[in-house]
Amino acid sequence: MSILAEAGLRGRAAIVGLGELAPTKKPEGRTPLELISEAAMAAIADAGLTRGDIDGLVVCPAMMQYSMLWPSIVAEHLGLSLSYMEFVDLGGATACGMVARAAAAIATRRATTVLCVSGDTWDPQGMYLKPPPLLFPLRDFTVPYGAAGANADYAMAARLHMHRYGTTSRQLAKIAADQRKSAQENPLALFYGHPLSIDDVLASPMVCDPLHKLEIVLPCCGAEAAVLTASDRTQDLPHPPAYVLGFGEALDPDPFQREDFLTTPTVESARRAFGMAGLGPRDVTLAEIYDCYTSAVLIELEDAGFCHKGEGGPFVEAHDLTFGGDFPLNTNGGMLSFGQPGLGGGMTLVLEGARQVMGRAGPRQVRRNDVAFVHGNGGTFTEECSLILSRER
Amino acid sequence: MSAKSPLDRPLPSGKGDSARYWTALRAGRIELPRCQACESLVFYPRPHCPVCHGHDLEWVTLSGRGRVYTCTVVHRATHPWFMDKTPYVYALVELEEGVRLPSQIVGVPPAEVTIGLAVEALFEKVDDEHTLLLFRPAGLLEA
């Protein structure tokens, strides 16, 4: 049994309320705080609760409204009185990290019912003129050489994977195409109503070779919220709970110097999450895995243990990844089809994992919804956080 | 970064713990601190070793010879200054000494840059204050 399992954190909290706004390509005159409030109130109502039931709040940076005292600002806006508040800043691992902290806070009785909410107005064109404050020293050694943000790093990962393991662009493109099929059952997705074939992905413009435009997430505006409460308080609530059976986190700060660029801290974050849950990859019936790029999905699948290192290409080729398939993956379309509303992008995957486990996914409901593996990936495979959500404790 | 406007060419500040690195580039040398306790090369430069937290660092000169560890051909740049410079090859170069440096591979058509390609350092003087470290295929001059 792992240390985390021994700590008594397994299954002590559950996701019971979901709030998600339809993403938009432009801010449409709205601020991140306004979007966050709307999603938060939707999630509280969805849980059958009221403002006064919330005693914990977990937030994350809104890049377009970056401010000190953000937890207090959000709490003030929503009129919340709190016994626990937290600010999580883990890049793409943020959303999973928020839920992990909320679950731990509930398990240790620092709060009974915690609101996790994220949102942003991420306008890709505006970002050039007003870049978010991202001030790590390594920038002096990358940006002057034309580093194309995360695009270049994930393209270099894809290229190395192809070189070493024979992975093909068609295999990577299938991830985007299968997810897009699932998105056709998600009216909230930015690309709802726009089906996509593997050939369409490969015909889209090359951005950073070998990654095409349609293998890269589209930043957008939106907000997402989840309400968690203690597992022993869920019986009178309107929806079945999605129990948080396990969570795990890992950081390797230096992707360029690590022994192998393609072996990421997901190995450790998934191992810790599965260890707490007492489950393994074979128990998972659906996966919601951070898809900033197709290459990210491939490498996370390998490192989480769904296939061996280097076999991600054949794995995605052999499985139907749509919601009706034999390995349902990113069943709301993933961020590649839904859009990436800032750090909240990862929260759409958390919400979809919970929605499926609760049996509330409607036309895209997976047949076997027992256990969801949800994963967030930040930086260049730097911060990783994994969650195990389950229908039963 | 010392660019005055977000549209200007992005250049390193050249100050602080890395000042010596950028000064050496201006003289045509690659220098990095090496930890005397665990022998790790420290990149980016800082006053301690991130591997063992040793503080006994000694600046050493590196060969400038290495291989392309991985790379990408950038067709759409993110920074505005690079937008009309595409396509170019952004790469992670593994030097003979083991450290991997992000850089560009120049002097060869982008399509000819492959993983494992032997490369050597090229110092690009941008202005009196800034010299960047690029790489080109090894032995290009002799050929």
Can you put this structure into words, describing what you see?
- The complex is a heterodimer of chains A (393) and B (143).
- Chain A has one domain (3-125, 217-390): Thiolase/Chalcone synthase (Peroxisomal Thiolase, Chain A, domain 1, 3-Layer(aba) Sandwich), CATH 3.40.47.10.
- Chain A contains 13 helices and eleven strands.
- Chain A has helices spanning 3-6, 32-46, 70-78, 94-107, 124-129, 149-165, 169-183, 198-203, 266-277, 294-304, 312-318, 334-338, 345-358; strands spanning 13-20, 56-59, 84-87, 113-121, 206-209, 211-212, 221-230, 242-251, 286-289, 371-378, 383-390.
- In chain A, helix 7 (169-183) crosses helix 11 and helix 9 (266-277) crosses helix 10.
- Chain A is globular and about 55 Å long.
- Chain A starts with a helix and ends with a strand.
- Chain B is mainly beta and 143 residues long.
- Chain B folds into two domains: 13-62, no CATH class; 63-143, OB fold (Dihydrolipoamide Acetyltransferase, E2P) (Beta Barrel), CATH 2.40.50.
- Chain B is built from one helix and seven strands, in the order H-E-E-E-E-E-E-E.
- The chains are: A alpha/beta (393), B mainly beta (143).
- The interface between A and B is large, with 38 and 42 residues.
- Strand 5 (206-209) of chain A pairs antiparallel with strand 3 of chain B, so a sheet runs across the interface.
How many β-strand runs of chain A?
11
Return Rg of chain A in Å. 19 Å
Low-confidence stretches of chain B: none
Going by CATH, the homologous superfamily of chain A would be: Thiolase/Chalcone synthase
Percent of residues in helices of chain B: under 10%
| Helix residue percentage of chain A | 25-40%
Mean pLDDT of chain B: 94
